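[step 3/7] inverse_fold.run input=structure_tokens len=552
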């Protein structure tokens, strides 16, 4: 059992103090009576209201304790419920031009930009996030997706030289983001720029005006210093071989262009910060984005914990009613009844009140109170959503002990291993879960996640068979169909460099790539191929020229 508002349980301290006070008063009164009347004579001389008062105090204490527990919202068991996710659409545009190799921010501008990018992606909750890399041309590195784990996979590939077209076109990055926002969407459009602000005639101010008209907000983080830094040229081993020169043969000095970035943000109603190694900039950026109004992005059916406060509220009301019924003197209710009989026109009114009280009790009765292994499962899900995978796994192990024949604990244990990047451990848990699973939907989910883990281990044939099994149990699973075709085409999912996933099992966010995300991913691949073709054409044109333009 868990509590949604555990802080309210501290009121039990006040209830306990009140109980101690009543006990002390009772002992004091008993001491005074013993001084005046002999104990053997007290039953005959002292009214019985003393013992009745003790019962009234006990019932009052029970009512207060039950009311405090009810206010803390105790939860156990679970149910399936529709949950809507709200957020904004955010494109993060990262400058990958040669000027980002400058070292005026240690160890380099690019390293600082990547660090900022990683922190922003990991801290945005519920938003669709996409990544755009730009230099002399901009293209989508990761399409808009709710799957933060998928977006994080692209971080390692972002580096200087990723875009094959040299130069810096800040305006193109903004226009690319605008063209890839979903059309006719009511969600807020946010563009985050991570760049030194240098631009080579792409009209960034004009692009900001276009963003304002489209309803997009630009938040800019300047990477670099206004004093600037020369651009070092290095060999394959990392040694400095010289300094970049312009077409006049002069050493290039790259500087942070703060006025341009600040103006772009101002036009769209956004903000500008100078970035670097201070993580407070990331916190300020995330707070600004999170404070914006959010629209529904998706909905799904998830398992949620059930409130069981009705039990305790009913007991509190019942105890209060009993405390009211217990009178201090004998014959009290007989006297009340005689008075009611004399005032007969009052009886129907009392009957209505009694019926209303009975109806209230009926409404407060809980429909069900399952106290099985679901409590451990729900505690594990709560820890998973909070990011405590180790703690969640322990709760799932407890649920496995409480329900040894159930497949769900093993399935969730496998998910914790999967999101930690421990794919072999995840596969072992999935195999045990599949052996116990009986429901087709659960068997399909187990097979799907097995396929994902196998694909991450480069075991493509086994992954294909796993996705086939997922389709066998759930032929309508479009995600499994897409992944199956994706693997059959000879392609493999990108793997993080360190092999560690950072998703949270139990929140339903990051276990599958949706069909919509898959279509955007294909569009992104097409954009990359077009960028490569354009780069080759540009290189051929440059080779035919004697002089060169700005390539940083």
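[step 3/7] decode complete -> sequence:
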């Amino acid at each position: 059992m868990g509590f949604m508002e555990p802080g309210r349980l501290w009121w039990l301290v006040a209830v306990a103090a009140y109980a101690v006070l009543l006990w002390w008063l009772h002992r004091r009164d008993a001491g005074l009576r013993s001084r005046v009347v002999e104990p053997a004579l007290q039953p005959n001389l002292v009214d019985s209201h003393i013992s009745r008062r003790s019962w009234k105090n006990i019932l009052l204490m029970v009512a207060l304790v039950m009311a405090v527990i009810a206010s803390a919202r105790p939860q156990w068991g679970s149910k399936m419920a529709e949950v809507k996710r709200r957020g904004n659409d955010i494109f993060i545009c990262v400058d990958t031009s040669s000027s980002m190799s400058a070292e005026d921010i240690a160890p380099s501008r690019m390293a600082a930009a990547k660090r900022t990018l990683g922190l922003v992606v990991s801290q945005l909750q519920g938003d669709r996030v996409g990544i755009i890399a730009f230099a002399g041309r901009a293209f989508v590195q990761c399409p808009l997706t709710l799957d933060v784990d998928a977006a994080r996979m692209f971080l390692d590939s972002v580096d200087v030289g990723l875009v094959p077209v040299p130069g810096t076109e800040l305006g193109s990055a903004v226009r690319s983001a605008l063209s890839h926002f979903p059309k006719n969407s009511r969600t807020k459009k946010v563009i985050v720029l991570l760049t030194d602000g240098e631009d080579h005639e792409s009209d960034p101010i004009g692009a900001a005006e276009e963003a304002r008209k489209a309803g997009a907000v630009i938040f800019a983080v300047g990477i670099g210093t206004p004093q600037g830094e020369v651009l070092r040229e290095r060999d394959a081993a990392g040694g400095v071989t010289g300094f970049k020169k312009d077409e006049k043969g002069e050493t290039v000095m790259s500087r942070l262009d703060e006025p341009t970035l600040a103006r772009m943000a101002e036009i769209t109603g956004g903000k500008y910060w100078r970035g670097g190694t201070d993580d407070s900039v990331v916190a300020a950026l995330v707070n600004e984005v999170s404070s914006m109004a959010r629209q529904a992005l998706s909905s799904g059916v998830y398992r949620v914990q059930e409130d069981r406060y009705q039990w305790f509220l009913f007991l509190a009301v019942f105890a209060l009613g009993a405390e009211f019924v217990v009178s201090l003197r004998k014959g009290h209710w007989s006297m009340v009844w005689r008075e009611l009989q004399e005032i007969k026109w009052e009886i129907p009114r009392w009957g209505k009140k009694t019926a209303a009280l009975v109806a209230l009790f009926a409404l407060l009765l809980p429909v069900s109170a399952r106290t099985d292994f679901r409590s451990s499962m729900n505690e594990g899900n709560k820890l998973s959503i909070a990011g405590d995978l180790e703690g969640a796994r322990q709760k799932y192990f407890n649920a496995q002990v409480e329900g040894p024949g159930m497949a769900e604990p093993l399935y969730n244990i496998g998910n914790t291993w999967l999101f930690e990047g421990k794919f072999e451990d995840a596969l072992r848990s999935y195999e045990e879960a599949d052996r116990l699973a009986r429901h087709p939907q659960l068997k399909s989910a187990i097979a799907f996640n097995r396929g994902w883990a196998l694909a991450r281990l480069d075991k493509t044939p086994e992954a294909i068979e796993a996705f086939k099994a997922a389709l066998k149990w759930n032929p309508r699973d479009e995600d499994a169909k897409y992944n199956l075709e994706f693997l059959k085409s000879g392609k493999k999912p990108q793997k993080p460099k360190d092999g560690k996933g950072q998703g949270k099992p139990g929140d339903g966010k990051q276990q599958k790539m949706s069909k919509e995300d898959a279509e955007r991913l294909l569009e992104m691949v097409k954009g990359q191929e077009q960028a490569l073709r354009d780069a080759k054409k540009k290189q051929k044109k440059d080779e035919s020229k004697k002089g060169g333009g700005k390539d940083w």
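[step 4/7] annotate
The first strand starts at residue 2 and ends at 3.
The CA atoms of residues 164 and 532 lie 7 Å apart.
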